[in-house]
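Can you give me the bound-state structure? Components:
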Amino acid sequence: MTRLVEVPTQFDDRSFDQFAAAYAQATDGERLLFDAHAAEWASPYGLVGLLVAGEAAARRGERPLLTAPANPDVVSYWARAGFFREAGDLFEVHGKVPRTKPAVESDVLLPVTPVRAAEDVHAVVSTIQQRASAILSSELGLDPKATMGFAMALSESCQNIVEHAGTGGWVAVQAYNWRRKLARRVVVIAVADAGVGFRHSLEPTQAKRFGERWGDAAALEAALIQGTSRFRDPGRGQGLAGIRRYLARWEGKVAIRSGTARIAIVPRWDDDLPLKDGLPAFPGSQVLLIIPEQESGGGSSKQ
Amino acid sequence: MIPHIMVQAVLQQSVSGFYTDLVTRPTGRAVRENIERDLAPGTIAVMDFTGVGCLDYSCADEIVAKLVRDKVKVLLLRGLTEAHREAIQPVLAGAGLAVLCERPDGVLEGLGASEPAPALLDELVERRLAARHPGGSIRFPAA
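Here's the bound-state model for the whole set.
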């Protein structure tokens, strides 16, 4: 039997739970058909999230199907964003997919890129420094020195996959005008994997401490707010803390979804909830970082 | 003689491929292990970061914090960019550790937790590896 999983027409972190709910209804052995034919737009978060669903579905049963967006502009954009280069290995793709190479000069700062090992993180950091510097300083009004912090945040986000997921994942970085929410330019980093998730990763060292409260939400809280790590090494847990500091400096946002929970550090321009629990279960972890254009005179120098 | 460690050169020796960025735990571990091989325990060492691009928190911990915690008595950093300092400072401060770093004008100052830094400066002065200048600043090496 084939189960249909609809891809939201506007596919980003806001509509992700709708997608996750459809995905969560699947049972083992069912073949999944991810239907993106009506998709009008997808954020980097949506694209890497869709790949995660494809990988997890393939592990559970038959290779999933994917109907590509029918709109030529949309499918072309997904191709330029590097989505189909990765999707071809995971899905049986149906529909007209252009043979466009991932973009080298555009708002796609980093096309959808697999992250499996430390070498991949090196390549990602090197690429982003070459391409993001101009956009971060000229378009977002960030101090040129902030580019290095951006690369650090990206590195630490990707390392969560290498160190904790137990499998590979993907990263994508794009800049775009966020008219709906901010009426400003933003740079978005999305990192996702279909690995073990935060709860499983932290369970051996943290579950006892939380007692009955232990679950996906508690695990996310332990990792992002308290800076705990599954490793007992005293220097661990620096990565997410560093990301928080960087984003606080530039009024950015970080949100992490894992399992059935989602945690966010919410800047004043956003109305997201800091913690959501009881969401539809979704494999692995999905990290979202948003850095907005600075309102005037660049970012604050406060830590 | 104080060992001078050119971090960028050690990075090239430690990992395959040409990288200028010190990112990821495995890279940091490889670099630190390479450095440790030539360092006697309890030594005073200079690490020069000239030519290093991005330094992430994981590498700052894996290299700088672990060397200070487990291997060297005083670590003096030079060639640091502002971004390098931003990675190293919280990692050391969080662990209650400190290093000395040399500003472009040659003045030494503490980086990391504030408590251990004065003792590190005193150690260099006592060993005549650095000197107090008028106004209280300390420079390395002693002129």
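A couple of observations. The interface with chain A takes residues 15, 17, 19-21, 23-27, 53-58, 60-62, 65-66, 69, 81-83, 86-87, 90-91, 94-95 of chain B (CB under 8 Å). The helical segments of chain B are 7-14, 25-37, 57-70, 82-94, 117-126.
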